[in-house]
Amino acid sequence: MERMPIEELTRASKASLYPEPLIIPPLQDHKQTFIILHGRGSNATVFGPPLLDTQVSGIQTFRSSFPYAQFVFPTASKRRAQVYHRSVINQWFDNWSLQTPNERTELQIEGLRETSAYIHSLLRSAIDQVGSENVVLGGLSQGCAAALVSLLTWDDQSIAAAFGMCGWLPFRMQMEDIASSDSLDNKDLGDDDLFEASGEVVDKDAPTQATTFLCEELEFPGKSPSMSFQRIPIFLGHGVKDEKVPVGLGREAVSCLRHLGASVEWQEYEGVGHWYSDAMLHHLVNTLKDVTSWECT
Q: Which sign does the torsion angle of CA 82, 85, 86, 89 carry?
């Protein structure tokens, strides 16, 4: 069955939780697609155009660096934020304080499941239009966190690249514990067996077990990770002075992703807070050009 183009996805019943994405057309022919997620409390209109119009030293603007790219900026659905006294804000998922990221992780489950399914639908539509080798997924802050989870739970072919700025990785501690341990197949975990519910004897390496845990934690029905993220180059950048998402959470995300078998380029930026910087965008643009081999002129 032919899939709907990105422009029509949010008219479908499942996507109706999310406002229609902001779509910025390419400057030239449409050959590539970026899908970029904003941070908590923001939206596509506030976040997208300023990012694309930011002057980057030596390469003009982010948008002009990729003249054949369409930029898709989704907007998160409205959800109650428990940490803000249940105020209703745009957020990809609910989460507790990032000063204690491993507390009340159950708040994340529903939003991460719904958002990942939505992002997967955007990815599939983009792939149908330009091919998987011409699609990039990225995000800022909570948008980075949601993009990374969407990438880990992705069950289709690998895309060109992924990136995140000033973000973190939900369920990082649990996944890294599994991925960095010896294979769980030969351990007697008793009542704590994470894979007991399937009723089958598992024969998976530790990274696959870790991402399977994530899919099961998010209650994806019948979801089995393809591990295609292991073939997707990932760029992560973070300001050392970030006051909202401590840089330590970014470092921990990188450690976990590498334990899962991902290829990650990590850059830290002295004096930079919770936002992108000229140096960060410069590194990002050059990295994407290097790993994608896209036509950019």
A: negative
Q: How far apart are CA 185 and CA 239, in angstroms?
A: 39
Q: What is the pLDDT of residues 29-68, one digit of tens each?
A: 999 999 999 999 999 999 999 999 999 988 889 999 999 9
Sign of the torsion formed by the C-alpha atoms of 147, 181, 194 and 159:
positive
Task: Provide the residue type at 226 as one letter.
Answer: S
Alpha-carbon gap, residue 29 to 44, rounded angstroms: 23
Measured CA to CA in angstroms, residue 283 lies from 143, 221, 237 at distances of 19, 38, 9
Q: Residue written as tokens 């949010």?
A: 10
Q: Where are the beta strands (DSSP E) in 149-206?
A: 161-165
- Most confident among 13-17, 82-86, 111-115, 180-184 (mean pLDDT): 111-115
- Residue 21: pLDDT over 90: yes
Other beta carbons less than 10 A from residue 85's beta carbon: 7
The Cα 285–Cα 239 span in angstroms is: 17
Buried b (16+ CB within 10 A) or exposed e, 201-230: eeebebbbbbbbbbbebbebeebebebbbb
Total-model pTM? 0.87
**Contact call for residues 122 and 21 (beta carbons, < 8 A):** yes
| Burial environment of residue 90 by CB neighbours within 10 A (0 to 12, 13 to 18, 19 or more) | buried
